[in-house]
Amino acid sequence: FTGFTQKGLVEISEIVEDIRIGPFGTMLHKADYVSGGVPVINPQHIKKLSIIPSEKVTVSQEKYVELAPYQLKENDIIMGRRGEMGRAAAITKVEAGWICGTGSILFRLKPEYDATFYSQILSSPDAVHYLEDHATGTTMKNLNESIVKHIPVPKVTRQMQEEIVSKSEEKTSICDSIEQTIDASLQQAEALRQSILKQAFEGGL
User: Looking only at Cα atoms, what is the longest distance across the chain?
Assistant: First the structure.
């Protein structure tokens, strides 16, 4: 992986307590979804290292109890296991207790490993390349436990994990600020264009 030597890599199975595929279709059907219940997280809800739940893709309290083995805990990582590879996010206090969906897979890290850091690793170009090379299926790429447990990841100290995350978040904040400035400039340019066109049609130029 970029920035890490091959010597420093281990299989992800070495740093996790559990790897679990989301509930199979026999346990969770579309008919089980309700509005306003406990969110179920499928790949489409994982975007840019964050989780954006859908109010319509939730389950009742009764179903939630049935799906107890798939409840997410703080410092877990959830990752999409089909379709676009590399969609991953860390579970925070906000998402703790939500359900890992059928199309997702959860990694329960050992305490000394940080989910924010390793979710970034799983979303990196190197990890995506690995997943695409090893995924099964032709129409839609799929991952299973036997594939993902071998994902190579860097094994570094907790302090280094936190330092890298801090630097990454700082750079991301700068990029977001630049993006907002660009968006504002584009909106101003579009407003000016529309004003000029309006004047032209009204014969004001």
Answer: 72
